[in-house]
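TL;DR need structure tokens for one chain.
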Amino acid sequence: MVITKKSIIGDILDYEPETAQFFFAIGMHCLGCPASRGEAIEDACAVHGTNADALVDEINRFLASKNK
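>> reply
TL;DR here they are.
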């Protein structure tokens, strides 16, 4: 799975639950909330005042390291 800014958070968490750590790191502690699970990364980052590109890169690096 390759993550983009348009990727839905719930889909990412379903694919790899360990990615929750990256959302927690930006202050997104409401991952169980249906609204947050349906949000795209870019929308969540806008609300939390963080860089979506940096988060996407970090998650993609993590996923790539797990698939080696």
